[in-house]
Amino acid sequence: MDYPPTRLPGRGPGWYRGDLHVHSVHSDGGLTPAELAAAARAAGLDFLATTEHDSPAEPGSWGEVGGDDLLVILGQEVTTRTGHWLALGLAPGQLADHRHRLGDPAVDQELRGVRATGGLCVAAHPHAPYPGGELAYPLELFDAVEVWNGQWSADLPWNADNEAALAEWGRRLGAGTRTGRWQPAVGSSDTHLPGQLGTPQTVVHAEELSAPAILAAVRAGRSWIAESAAVRLEFTAEAAGRTAGIGERLATAGRPVELLVRLSGLPDGCTVHFRTERGKEHRAPAGELVRWSTDAERTAFVRVEVRRPDGRALALTNPVLLG
């Protein structure tokens, strides 16, 4: 088998964990596809995306390493001179041309080409601290934004570059959620070396374990980001007898909104931060169940950050939309 299947049988609606940014020895990574697949299973992942720099997945290298318990999504890291982006859900052999820069009309053509075959375009590590790594393109060009990139150290997977990316993405949410044109956040390891895979990981609520379903859920914002598979989170909003989850819109009928966060697998001393278009509105000690209330007149969305005692992120959600 040259290429892995795009759908795994018998895996219906549910939450699936995966890593959307992974490199192997076929670009500048240090692990073979078989080693990456083994690491994905060890990290508790259901899917991963192979994203070599400016080259398609090597025929035959991924076809046999997935299996019934691990979905492999074909992709590419498009490494331009003014920032990198991920093309996810590519057809076998499909390649996006990386020879463009900010202001070049060719970037729009390449983005359209990925989307035309059902693919997803993700702004990668927008504040990466090296020449060409910092994203100069507007975030609005893309379908999602990688706000958490774990490449630099598995021991310290959250740093100032991720904090800057999260802040920039968060500032744009208010206007975007009101117009219906907002870019969901994702987190990826950007694995190059052993010990990095799945730190962090994107947890997606999809209709099935298939490449189209995973990408559709990411596009819709039905996902959150975890440092590891040990972290468990459920975030819902309730109003007027209705309930909505992450990435969904809650019709509040002008009634107060109760927000509930259920957590497990956290170290001691963590805090939960509720963020809205007004910024950080409420902070509480993390526990099995954390509650807060607001209303749609006050904000168009609420999202959650779970932080360690030293301030590092442990989990981040996309917003619940209020209307």
Tell me the major beta sheet. 15 strands, mixed
Structural class, from helix and strand content? Answer: alpha+beta
Uncertain spans, ≥5 residues at pLDDT below 50?
A: none
Q: What's the overall geometry? A: globular
Number of strands: 19
CATH superfamily of the largest domain: Metal-dependent hydrolases
Radius of gyration computed on alpha carbons? 19 Å
The topology string of helices and strands comes to EHEEEHEEHEEHEEEEEEEEEEE
Q: What is the CATH topology descriptor of the largest domain?
A: TIM Barrel
CATH class group of the largest domain? Alpha Beta
Helix content: 10-25%
Number of domains: 2
Distance between the termini: 48 Å
Mean pLDDT: 95
Domain Polymerase/histidinol phosphatase N-terminal: 18-82
InterPro entries: PHP_domain, Pol/His_phosphatase_N, Pol/histidinol_Pase-like
Protein name: Polymerase/histidinol phosphatase N-terminal domain-containing protein
3D structure, described in words:
- With 323 residues, the protein is an alpha+beta fold.
- The chain has two domains: 213 residues, Alpha-Beta Barrel (TIM Barrel), CATH 3.20.20; 91 residues, Immunoglobulin-like, CATH 2.60.40.
- The chain is 16% helix and 35% strand.
- The strands form two sheets. It has a 15-stranded mixed β-sheet that branches. The protein has a four-stranded antiparallel β-sheet with strand order 11-10-13-16, with no helix packed on it.
- The chain is globular, with a radius of gyration of 19 Å.
- The N and C termini lie far apart (48 Å).
- The relative contact order is 0.13.
- The model has no long low-confidence stretch (mean pLDDT 95).
- It holds the Pfam family PHP_C.
- It comes from Kitasatospora saccharophila.
- This is Polymerase/histidinol phosphatase N-terminal domain-containing protein.
